[in-house]
Amino acid sequence: MRAAWLANHREPKINMATLFKYYKPLCSSIRFTSPFTIPPFRYAPNRTRPPRTVPVTGKRRQFFSFFSSLTSSLPVLNENNSGPTSGDGAASPPSELWLYNTMTRKKELFKSKLDGKVGMYVCGVTAYDLSHIGHARVYVTFDVLYRYLRHLGYDVSYVRNFTDVDDKIIARANEVGEDPISLSRRYCEEFHQDMVSLHCLPPSVEPRVSDHMPQIVDMINKILDNGCAYRIDGDVYFSVDKFPQYGRLSGRKLEDNRAGERVAVDTRKRNPADFALWKSAKEGEPSWQSPWGPGRPGWHIECSAMSAAYLGHSFDIHGGGMDLVFPHHENEIAQSCAACGDSNISYWVHNGFVTVDSEKMSKSLGNFFTIRQVIDLYHPLAVRLFLLGTHYRSPINYSDALLENASDRIFYIYQTLYDCENVIGEQDAGSEDSAIPPDTMNCIVKFNDLFAASMSDDLHTPVVLAAISDPLKIINDMLHTRKGKKQAKRIESLSGLGKIVQKVLTILGLMPTTYSEVLQQLKEKALRRAKLTEDQVIQKIHERTEARKNKDYEKSDAIRKELSTVGIALMDNPDGTTWRPAVPLALQELEIGTP
Q: What range(s) does the Cysteinyl-tRNA ligase anticodon binding domain occupy (predicted)?
């Protein structure tokens, strides 16, 4: 029986004992709270700097499986960190959060400009094609930040724009013979579908460039009035020489901005680094009226104008991919400050690249996979788990091996919770009100504290995903082992453990509508990758059963290996043989997460 259960519920390689083994020097400073309450998390009040970073190299990477790039230590917890929580578990007042600020190049304690409120602007897609997995990483990253800020009790105004007026859109529209605005609108809807699939919450506002021409024109006028821009034949250019702080975000010097590389070649410009605020109308392109004649805005001005329209000139967080640091965000800072001297963004947050063979994934390089292509073979929640398995600022290499491991991992998580839910459902509802045993509550509190510490340390999702193994292992022991089934207050323990795992999954955006539905979908994706139907798998199971009856163990083992090679694992139980998705045999031999 035990062997059959182990085959069906493979415990993950990652557990809390291993986690603390490698981080013992750091964890020695952690003090946990009373095992009878689950308090909100706060840093020790005398903490004046963010936790130091400790690199993980060599063999230590291996125990993280696909959770690579774990690089920060665990912060000290305050032993007196009890406090009120709201009904949904959100802390009140908000717990402390450290975020890496690209502007200062260090982690900083997050403090919102308005008490209890956060303004966050994230640069959206240029809608001219289907979005790729690199885009998925950007918006999953900021979806987690959005969710976590809300969990901490903040009222978040999350603005994410659509660029629907751009050179790339016009070029694609001309290729296919479609109106540029119509084409862009179509791909905006495709993007929405991708975000729903990836469990990204909708932002508070999704402004589009084409709807904000008055605000863009007004901002350009202010920049001109303040002497930081100039007009040439219907075009308007920003003069970088008028902004001495140009380059402070990226660390680039003006002499580094050679014409033809990251800036457009135009001999009319006073400085090759000057960039367009307004482009005069050209035949076959959409245009709008302005004081300088018909035309359309440059790329950078749109985000400055739209962020100011919804969040004001001074707000908390501006985010996007690392590729936007220069020139886009550098130019945003220059033009926003030129339009309004009080312009100020507290935290500039950027996520790392998705790479393919150590090169950044991008449409221009032609080495990209669209979100649609990836989720055709892998469940969207497995893709989300894959993206969260690496710290958001580190590069993540796209590979089938990592996605297979993410799929295997998430199947294990949902199968465990599904089994837990079924057992609890068979009991009297009133029994859940009883006290949870101290040993179980101690595990719950430790996991909760580690979750809070890791998330508050610049959103260290890999640590959280590694730590989730501990409560899941205890749940499986209580569900399937003789000792676990006899444990006092077993149902109460299962309920408490299940709830804390569900809480964390919800904050990470990994909570499905129903476990049964997502488990079936994961099996269907596995069959598609294996290029098999379920009927074909069942036929193989019948053939193997017959071989075993005939004591033809060589054939039996060959069938098992044939299926495991393509990612189908067989489990022998007293009631017969069933199957579940698994990492294909060849990929199991790879060292996941090693350089």
A: 543-580
pLDDT in tens, 308-325: 999 999 999 999 999 999
In whole angstroms, what is the distance from residue 243 CA to residue 228 CA? 7
Alpha carbon separation from 430 to 358, 467, 537 (Å, rounded): 55, 30, 42
pLDDT surpasses 50 at 405: yes
Distance CA 532, CA 563 (A): 10
CA 54 to chain centre: 22
Let me know: does 161 contact 208? Beta carbons within 8 Å.
Answer: yes
User: 484: burial class by Cβ within 10 Å (0-12, 13-18, 19+)?
Assistant: middle
Q: Is 25 exposed, middle or buried (0-12, 13-18, 19+ CB in 10 A)?
A: exposed
Asked if residue 128 lies in contact with residue 186, where contact means CB atoms within 8 angstroms, the answer is no
pLDDT score of 453 more than 60: yes
Q: What angle do CA 186, 386, 413 make, to 5 degrees?
A: 115
End-to-end CA distance of the chain: 39
Sequence letter at residue 113: K
Q: Are strands 354-356 and 344-351 parallel, antiparallel or unpaired?
A: unpaired
Give the chain's mean pLDDT. 84
Secondary structure (DSSP) of 54-81: ----GGGGGGGTT-----BPPPPBPTT-
Task: Estimate the crossing angle of helix 133-151 against helix 180-197, to 10 degrees.
Answer: 60
pLDDT over 70 percentage in the chain: 80
Q: β-strand 106-109 against 98-101: which pairing, if any?
A: antiparallel
Burial of 551 (0-12, 13-18, 19+ CB in 10 A): exposed
Q: Hey, is 535 helix, strand or coil?
A: helix
Per-residue pLDDT tens digits for 143-177: 999 999 999 999 999 999 999 999 999 999 999 99
Q: pLDDT of 9-43, one tens digit each? A: 544 444 444 343 333 333 333 333 332 232 333 32
Residue 140 identity:
V
pLDDT of residue 255: 67
Q: Distance (Å, rounded) from C-alpha 499 to C-alpha 15?
A: 19
**Could you give the CA distance from residue 320 to residue 160 in angstroms, rounded to a whole number?**
10
